[in-house]
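ugh ok so i messed up the first submission bc i forgot one of the chains. this is the corrected input, ALL of the components this time, i swear. 225 residues overall. if the numbers dont match what u have on ur side tell me asap before i send this to the collaborators (the ones from the other lab, u know who)
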Amino acid sequence: EAEVAQSPRYKITEKSQAVAFWCDPISGHATLYWYRQILGQGPELLVQFQDESVVDDSQLPKDRFSAERLKGVDSTLKIQPAELGDSAMYLCASSSNEETQYFGPGTRLLVL
Amino acid sequence: GDSVTQMEGPVTLSEEAFLTINCTYTATGYPSLFWYVQYPGEGLQLLLKATKADDKGSNKGFEATYRKETTSFHLEKGSVQVSDSAVYFCALSESNAGNMLTFGGGTRLMVKP
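and heres the new structure output, hopefully the right one now
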């Protein structure tokens, strides 16, 4: 069964450093989502792509976060500089034309 | 805006007990409703979904019925197992919002032998 791949699974960094997360969606899925999940809470959408275009990035802190999906396949989420409050699980999900989203295993970020 | 409210946990049950996790929602249109499950240290797995009123989603013994009149989508299972211990998230999506998911806060279920 096809899965969404994410790497790294865990990342520890110091504040003010740059970090990057990678996501490879299920093959053929045009829509890709990045969510942030703070411990003990539900995920919240950061950015949504349709192919290579950003559909919604209204909740993305653009002063420090950036996301790209240059060829409309895999995607990178970057944080620069990282802050203590960025510690969370970063989840990637993808979907085809139907509405069901399939999630990857996530990247757990700890900022010290 | 859209929102999802679920009962706070943790919910602690003995094996073979009956499970109900309440979920209610507010939405501007006609959302699709989902239950996702998250095991420790892992991402979210789709458990079940329903796309219109009175639909019943079911999977692995879990069920939930889309109740438009009460704006609810309660999760039930007749006999829980230790392996069901996880965090359960209720969520909704609307096609006019790009199908982004709006999640509840999650409910932790602990099943004891």
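quick check: Residues 7 and 22 of chain A are 5 Å apart (CA to CA). that seems consistent at least. The two ends of chain A are 37 Å apart (CA to CA).
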